[in-house]
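[Q] Does anyone have a clean structure-token version of this?
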Amino acid sequence: MTFEGSGLLTLFLSAFLAATLLPGGSEVVLAILAVRGEYDPWVLLAVASAGNTLGGMSMWAVGRFFGWWYPASRFTQPRHQRSIRWLQQWGSPVLLLSWVPVVGDSLCLVGGWLRVHWLAALVWIAIGKALRYGVIVYAAS
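[A] Here you go.
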């Protein structure tokens, strides 16, 4: 299977992986596909946002899972402590920032850890991810 024949699948997978702790280049894949013009920009936006949101929610689920055994106070890394403070101070709307590199992964993880309701997490994460990808699609089209 070539990149051309699997553009949307490649975009979805790269967006999903980019939302986890794994490094990803979903923005590059999205920009290339948008510049090529082979797909409707709205389809590209939907696929990238869905993949990245699903990846963010998988991080939320990991945080929720591990939160049963380890309280959030056991997180000692500064970026996690920052995420904990932000979520405690501002609540689930902070998950709009889940698109920010490095910090965003921690926000999703800590959101699950602190038991942010799954629907609130899904909505805020999806909005943040879609806005970021919308800017990329707009700039590349």
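[Q] Thanks! Anything notable?
[A] Residues 34 and 77 are 37 Å apart (CA to CA).
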